[in-house]
Amino acid sequence: MPSARFLSRPPRRVPSARSRLPRLVPSARFPSRLPRAGLRWKISAAIAVVSALVALALSLVVHNAARVSMINSTRDVQDERVQSALRIYETTGRLVFYARIDDPDLPKELKAYAAKGQRATYVDDSGSSPTVWAETPAADGRVLSLKTGFTDRYSVLVDLDQALVAGSLAVVLGGTAIGVLIGGRMSRRLGKAAVAARKVADGDTEVRVREAIGGRRVRDETDELARAVDAMADALQLRLEAERRVTADIAHELRTPVTGLVTAAELLPPGRPSELVRDRVHALRTLVEDVLEVARLDGAAEQADLQEVTLGEFVRRRVRVLAPDATVTVAEEAVVPTDPRRLERILGNLLANAARHGGGAVEVVVDGPYLRVRDHGPGFPADLLREGPLRFRTGSAARSGGGHGLGLTIATGQARVLGARLTFRNAPEEDGGGAVAQLLLPR
Fold first, then answer.
1. CB 196 within 8 A of CB 205
2. Nearest one of 142, 17, 50, 132 to 89, comparing CA atoms
3. Measured between alpha carbons, how far is 104 from 186 in angstroms, rounded to an integer?
């Protein structure tokens, strides 16, 4: 009788498992806080997804390998049992191991092998758990078969699946935790770099990004970025310092001949031509003095001579002299430590800017440490609101009048020396419009 080894190889269907310089860049361009959670959770999500895919792939491989191994072992045992049952049946005529002769439920695949006189085994997956069949032709031409459920070993496979699921969850959670730690550390370093860069942009020449993020301990791409930003800040600082020195030197060299021109203009005989010359000479002298002041403020060497000042009373007296037509309102009086000379310079420049470029009545409001100067003209141009005042930029054509754009630049620089904050905005159209300059003094 042929005993071809189809018993464990022919049609086996084993499915898968169920299955202090000038501001380099206006700080308004920087967000007040870097969105740190985004980077942290993106890295964590990426690690979690990769961990889940790896764990799933390994679990499927282990599950299928264990299932195939168990089924093959059961088929070998079933084949040995069917051979033993055949020997006992042919010797004694008794059926053992719950064997059956010409079982009507025998799968058609096994019937085909039996018709060829071959012994074979077969796995039926149609039920809740696999059933392993084995058949062998008997000497009398009949077919002896056995079937055994895979229930016991299938429960072991279920336990294995549960262990794989638990292990996979542990891997995913562990990978996510590592991702949170790595992403959080990188996010904190980038946050420190952003804070340091913002300080550099605000003019703090002592801050360096690499020192702020601890670049001496860790060398990575963040450290390289910090080096590049520091190098850029150093180069820009040198260029600004060179520009400041050139501006100061030019203004200083012009100061002596302009002084001579002023003296000579005073000696001219009375008349309209002499008045025009004196007017232009005085304008030139004012321009030279403003340029020198801007150069001194850019050098970040100016120091304020602080005194206790009653702000409302101080503003009333100065506005009465600087702009008699302006109205003064004191909503709340406050005593502030400030330099009266520099504060008067700021107030005078704001009033002059409102009178020269604005329109309508000029209003001055004191509200505690806040000092607001408002006109009712076309308002500040968009680029000034976006980037702040820049020297020799006079604004849009809608704001009538001349000027060199130094008034607001000097006011901003003097506010920085006082430790105050000078901001610019436009009043709403429904409220009458106009430009609003607000100075916040430290208490």
1. no
2. 142
3. 70
Output the six-digit token pair for 391: 């020297």
- Residues pairing with 143 in the sheet: 137
Residue 24: CA count within 13 A, CB half-sphere = 23
Mean pLDDT over residues 294-317, rounded?
A: 83
CA distance 427 to 365: 14
| CB atoms closer than 10 angstroms to residue 132 | 23
Q: Residue 257: which residues within 8 A CB-CB, separation 6 or more? A: none
pTM of the model: 0.50
Give, in degrees to the nearest 5, the angle at Cα 280 between 276 and 286.
145
Lookup: tokens for 253: 């060299």
User: 308: helix, coil or strand?
Assistant: strand
Structure tokens at 395: 């604004």
DSSP category for residue 413: H
DSSP state of 99: -
Express each pLDDT in 11-64 by its tens digit: 333 333 333 444 433 433 444 444 445 777 777 888 888 888 888 898 889 888
Token pair in block for residue 227: 């080096």
- Rounded to whole angstroms, the Cα distance separating 336 from 307 reads 8
User: Per the structure block, which two tokens stand in for 221?
Assistant: 């791409």
**What is the pLDDT at residue 37?**
52
- The neighbouring-strand residues paired with 131 are 124, 149
Q: Which two tokens stand for residue 33?
A: 């806080």
